[in-house]
Amino acid sequence: EHRRLIADLTMVYNIIHDKISINTHLFTPSPNQNLRGHPLKLTVPLAKSNIQKHFFSQRVIPIWNSLPSQVVLAPSTVSFKKQINKIDLNKHLIFCSIYS
Predict the structure, then answer these.
(1) What is the structure's pLDDT at 91?
(2) pTM to 2 decimals?
(3) pLDDT tens-digit profile of 39-71?
(4) Contact call for residues 37 and 65 (beta carbons, < 8 A)
(5) Residue 55, Cα to own-chain centre: how many angstroms?
(6) Side-chain-side CA neighbours of residue 14 (13 Å)
(7) Which of 34, 37, 75, 91 is the most buried (most CB within 10 A)?
(8) pLDDT above 90 for 82
């Protein structure tokens, strides 16, 4: 679960920083840039059905928005991965939160 979360966040980093081109509109920037945190916050799309509640974007955007700005604004994917490994992501993991 932890490895999947890091892989998902790395995918979001690559999509946001245009290192991977995707023709879909998975992520929309948050219209309110006056909030705390980093300037690359994303808006969580509205889930209209139970199936949509488990989509990639629904699962990853709240975690992405909670990351510190030095991680999100990393200059490369390698530095992003190094910085993300230093962060405790246990509060976002379902398996760890059940047994805590």
Answers:
(1) 83
(2) 0.81
(3) 888 888 777 788 777 788 888 888 999 999 999
(4) yes
(5) 13
(6) 13
(7) 37
(8) yes
The set of long-range contacts for 27-36, using a CB threshold of 8 Å and a minimum separation of 24, is 27/57, 27/61, 30/65
Rounded CA gap, 10 and 75, in Å?
A: 13
pLDDT at 55 (0 to 100): 83
For 43, the token pair is 């808006």
Instruction: Quote the Cα angle for 80-42-83, to 5°.
Output: 15
**20, 47, 55, 56 from 51: Cα distances, Å:** 25, 8, 7, 11
Q: How far apart are CA 44 and CA 46, in angstroms?
A: 7
How far apart, in Å, do the first and last CA atoms of the chain sit?
Answer: 15
Tokens 């994303």: give the residue: 42
Structure tokens at 68: 């510190």
